[in-house]
Amino acid sequence: MPRKPSYAKPPIDPWTVAEPPQRPVPAWGLSLLLHATLLLAIGWLVRVPAVGVPPEPERTAGIVLTRQTREQVEYFSDADEDSADSGARREADVEDRLAEAEERPGDHLPEAADLPRDALAALPAGESARASGTGDWAATLPPAAELTEGQGPSRELGEGTRTSVFGAEGQGSRFVYVFDRSGSMSWFGGTPLAAAKAALNSSLQALQPTDQFQIFFYNHEFIQFNPKRSDNPGMFFASESKLAQAERFVFGVSAVGGTEHVAPLHAALRLAPDVLFFLTDGDEPQLSAAELNRLRRMNRGTAIHAIEFGVGAAGGDENFLQRLASQNNGQYVYVDVMQLGNRGETRALR
Question: Taking CA atoms, which of 6, 195, 237, 303 is between 20 and 30 Å from 19?
Fold first, then answer.
């Protein structure tokens, strides 16, 4: 039987260090390393500012106030207060320098003792004052009457203008005329309407340019002075041009139709005049107690003067026109149309 070959082992070098066997890395270690890497990456991303938001400045420890607006965030800290304090100190230094400058000799205002005891004595007086354009110059002006021309207003300050219609006198600055133009005003040859027109024109001429007026003529409906043809004419100042236009308006009115008192009276009171002159020859239809009460409630301080045209002597019983005037701080006047021609009150308007 043949012998197995023998192999001699190499001799061991005592100076050679044997390497330890390689061990595989455990799974939990790899997981720990991966998580640590992710945390570092997240922390770095958090420190990167968002687009459009300014980076927050580094501040030392302390109290920081912020004010956030739509565009930016502002931070306020102790350093800001220090800068404010330094600004205040600079302002104080400036004030101190100004105070020192005021205290320098020769730069201050004179004291009371330095002023002359009688300062008025230094002013010019008498003829020398007038010659130099100073002094009592008001005494050299002409009287006020010489500075104006023509006739002044017919009223005193605060009293208002006085004007009348057939003796019923009103006072104020706002006047409204409500005149009847129904068919009966054309009777007796048209005398009633002609007399009413003349009295109205005379009353308007007594107004001042600063007064205001409006005119209503009515039958079963009403018309009013409206030279501008506006939807709401209102009141007009009594200038020469407006009075001329009003005269032409009145001259063109004719008497025709029935009688309806309420609507024009309501329209006139809405203008809130000081005085309302109401002229009619229509005793029918009468204003009822309810209609009179409504007119009184609508009234805001207007004096209503009622002028009644009638034939012959006035009746003894109180009628609605008398009640209308008495309930609204006005006067009642009765006019006998048979006497109008004798009184010269039928002058036609031209």
Answer: 6
Let me know if domain 174-306+338-343 sits in CATH 3.40.50.410.
yes
Mean pLDDT over residues 78-92, rounded? Answer: 56
Three-state secondary structure call for residue 54? coil
**Length of the chain as a residue count:** 350
Residue 322 CB-half CA count within 13 A = 7
- Rounded CA Rg of the chain: 53
Distances (CA, A) of 154 to 157, 160, 198, 205: 10, 9, 21, 12
Can you tell me which residue has the tokens 């805001």?
Answer: 300
Burial of 302: CB neighbours in 10 Å, binned 0-12, 13-18, 19+: buried
Task: Please name which of 229, 234, 172 lies closest in space to residue 206, comparing C-alpha atoms.
Answer: 172
Contacts of 182 (CB under 8 A, 6+ apart): 218, 219, 220, 255, 256, 257, 258, 259, 281, 282
d(CA 260, CA 148): 48
pLDDT of residue 45: 73
275 burial via Cβ count (<10 Å: 0-12, 13-18, 19+): buried
Per-residue confidence (pLDDT) for residue 151, from 0 to 100: 33
pLDDT confidence tier of residue 123, bands split at 50, 70 and 90? very low
Higher pLDDT, 82 or 267: 267
Place of tokens 């061991």: 12
Helix residue ranges per DSSP H, 215-288? 240-251, 262-269
The set of residues, in sequence order, having a beta carbon less than 8 Å from that of 149 and lying 6+ positions away, is none
Nearest residue to 177 via CA among 215, 204, 226 = 215
H-helix or E-strand spanning residue 157? none
The separation between CA 340 and the C-alpha centre of its own chain, rounded to angstroms, equals 50
Mode of pairing for the β-strands spanning 303-310 and 275-280: parallel
- In this structure, the strands spanning 222-224 and 174-180 are unpaired
